[in-house]
Amino acid sequence: MLCSLLIWLDNTVLSTTLETLADPIRGLGADPGQLQWATGAYTLAFATLMFTAGALGDRFGHRTVFSGGLVMFAGSSLWAAYASDAGQLIAARAAMGVGSALITPANLAILMWTFTGPARAAAVGVFSTSAGVGMAAGPVLAGFLLDHFWWGSVFLLNVPVAALALVGLVVLVPNFRSPTLRPLDPAGMLLSISGLVALVYGLIRAGQVAAWSRTDVWAPIAFGLVLLTAFVLVELRVKAPGFDPRLLAQRTFGGGNAALGILLFAVAAITFYTAFFLQGALGFSPMKAGAATVPTACGALAGAPLASRLVRRLSVRAVTVPAMTVAALTMGGYGLLGLRTPLVWIEILLSIQGLAVGMVIGPVTAALISNLPLEQAGAGSAVTNTVRQTGSVIGIAVGGTIMSIVYRRAIEPSLEGAPGPVQDQARVSADQARHVATAVHRPTLAQAADDAFIHAMHVGAGWIAVLALLGAAVLLITLPAVDKKRGPIPEPDHEEARSLV
Fold first, then answer.
1. 254 in the same domain as 212
2. 15 with 121, same domain?
């Protein structure tokens, strides 16, 4: 439970810290591309290594793998806390993602081995609760730390919690291991990591140079797509692949996963915008911004059990299609937010968004897994988790790139007559523009940066909403109108909570 709480705390604190990291004085002066990598590197490592980590637990014992993941998570958190530049922070975040990938499958496997019957259901409930506490408490805790200490304190907090969890793990938890060993699939791991890194690099690079025709933009994207195609072909030839693409050929399973990937894409992108809107454009303190995002987590936690009860009376499609449509509309609602929008309207929007997203992820994930034969449940879970995390990391890349390109075009007319260095810094991001405007005493430049950011957020939110509506259409087409089996949908586990972060 400590490890579950730890992972969710860490994921939610980062979004509150982004604005501080962009500040050249209080943070690292990171540009939007570097912040996209700091956010996405963690998810990228998690998405591509989790199915391999599960096989390692079967082979060497889940407690052994769990312990190694905790040590790596704590060590890389210490590294992140004292990173001297954005490059070090990105590397540390990737290492933290590796640690989480080792922790997560072992965590759930140990829970399943330890408890049976009604006790298992109760344990999963406690597990989900710990994830929810982390999601809700993370932004507030990060805001408190950023208001009173330096930005690295949000990562340093992980170290004592991880140390306590490690002691409990060694003393209390047996070293469970599966009697059936799964292959490690090194070829699939290398191809998936290389392909996603190349694809994400090209997408983020497009936002930095604002020209898709450049070789350093289209070449990595094309190379990444080739590697990911090779990954799928390799997995099709493996008898027991860690990621089984054959499952995606099934209409319900493939369509449901496509919709979840699209939803997580949209959530990751809109969350990236929220961090800069609250602290940058509106000038909220980290504490106030963290508290302002709590309704999203609370809404998500309320949405999952609400949807579970509704599905007992209706079908999964009847519940999730309207919910995803509402989620898309709330993301499009960011196009109505401005510098003078009352906080109460922002809170209402975030609450409805969290509620709608929570009503989609839990029922769809449970329906997809329950739709598979029991012997394919493990493989199906690996596919679903990988697709969701991949959607998140690409959402961060694309959403941030749209914001950078539109912002740069919007700020350009306001830079006429400004010195060259001022123009160069102001083009990087609204945060950099505000900082240089203060330094050279040009308040009109700061106002222009705010206006350019709001315009960029409006444009990005429109595209994100359209994509989320496409996800709702996919659910409408691929999910059955009437469920074959009526019954309670299992409560979401900690992995579903991660999707909302």
1. no
2. yes
Cα–Cα distance for residue pair 182/144, rounded to 1 Å? 44
User: Which of 237, 259, 274 is a domain's end point?
Assistant: 237
Helix%, strand%, coil% for the chain, nearest 5: 80, 0, 20
φ, ψ for residue 371, nearest 5 deg: -75, -15
| Segments forming the whole domain that contains residue 283 | 244-393+461-481
Least Cα distance to 315 among 379, 373, 371 occurs for 371
Residue 289 falls inside a structural domain: yes
Domain annotation covers residue 315: yes
**33 and 158 both lie in a single domain:** yes
Q: Do 200 and 287 reside in the same domain of the chain?
A: no
Asked if the structure places residue 387 within a domain, the reply is yes
Q: The domain that contains 165 carries what CATH number?
A: 1.20.1250.20
Reported as a pLDDT band with limits 50, 70 and 90, residue 497 is very low
C-beta neighbour count of 480 within 10 angstroms: 13
106-134 pLDDT, tens digit per residue, is 777 777 777 776 776 667 667 766 666 77
Q: Which token pair is 60? A: 């060497």
Cβ neighbours of residue 371 closer than 8 Å, sequence gap 6 or more: 250, 252, 253
Query: What pLDDT, in 10s, does the model give residues 331-358?
Result: 999 999 998 999 999 999 999 998 999 8
Shared domain for 200 and 342, answered yes or no, is: no
- Looking at the fold, whether 124 and 196 belong to one and the same domain comes out as no
Residue 456 covered by a domain: no
CA dist 359 and 353 (Å) reads 10
DSSP labels for 358-419? HHHHHHHHHHHHHTS-GGGHHHHHHHHHHHHHHHHHHHHHHHHHHHHHHHHHHHGGGGTTS-
**Which residues lie below 8 Å from residue 338, measured CB to CB, with a gap of 6+?**
454
Per-residue pLDDT tens digits for 175-201: 777 666 666 777 877 888 888 888 888
pLDDT, tens digit, for every residue of 36-87?
888 888 888 887 787 777 777 777 887 888 889 899 999 999 999 999 888 8
Residue closest to 189 by CA, chosen among 52, 59, 384? 52
Q: Quote the number of domains for the chain.
A: 3
Q: Using the 3D structure, point to which of 142, 157, 183 is the last residue of a domain.
A: 183
Give which of 296, 304, 279 is closest to 349, Cα–Cα: 296
Do 173 and 295 belong together in one domain? no
What is the rounded CA–CA span in Å between residue 105 and residue 127? 13
Phi, psi of 191 (to 5 degrees): -65, -40
Sign of CA pseudo-dihedral 398, 401, 405, 410: positive
Domain co-membership, 215 together with 249: no
Over 60: is that where the pLDDT of 444 sits? yes
- Specify whether the backbone of 136 is left (phi greater than 0), alpha (psi in -120 to 50) or beta: alpha
Q: Which helix (H) or strand (E) holds 56?
A: helix 32-60
Q: What are residue 342's phi and psi, to 5 degrees?
A: -60, 145
